[in-house]
Amino acid sequence: MNDSNKNLTMEIQSEVFEMLIKHLQNKTEVQNIDLMNLADFCRNCLSKWYVSAAKEKGIDVSYDDAREIVYGMPYSEWKNLYQKEATKEQLDKFNSRNK
């Protein structure tokens, strides 16, 4: 792949990531445990991946800063506004997948 195609691919991937983040910010009814149970990743995973990718580029991004980027607000605020107590069924499904 030449540099032009590589840059275009990276631009497209960046736009897709932004769309995914906006989509998750707008779908506040979707709980992280639901994402984990269905797709094996959640908003917190994206935040950790963000920190890791920044570190690889020599940029120091804290986990809290990354979560604010992913959640669109401080995590504590999102948690207070939107996070619900996990149901027994959600927890059972989550715990069974890690065995």
Could you characterize what this model shows?
By secondary structure, the chain is mainly alpha-helical. The protein has one domain: SMc04008-like fold (Orthogonal Bundle). It is 74% helix and 0% strand. It is built from six helices and no strands. It has helices at residues 3-26, 32-39, 43-56, 63-71, 75-82, 88-97. The longest helix has 24 residues, at 3-26. It is globular and about 50 Å long. The N and C termini lie far apart (41 Å). The model has no long low-confidence stretch (mean pLDDT 95).
The mean pLDDT is 95
Instruction: Detail the poorly predicted runs.
Output: none
Query: What's the CATH architecture name?
Result: Orthogonal Bundle
Q: How many domains make up the coordinates?
A: 1
* Percent of residues in beta strands: under 5%
Structural class: mainly alpha
Q: Helical element count?
A: 6
Shape: globular
User: What's the CATH class label?
Assistant: Mainly Alpha
Please identify which CATH superfamily we are dealing with: SMc04008-like
Find the CATH topology.
Answer: SMc04008-like fold
In sequence order, what are the helices and strands, one letter per element? HHHHHH
Q: Determine Rg (CA atoms, Å).
A: 16 Å
**Biggest sheet character:** none
N→C terminal distance = 41 Å
Strand count: 0
Helical amount: over 70%
Highlighted features:
single chain, 99 residues
Brief sketch in words of this structure:
Helices cover 74% and strands 0% of the residues.
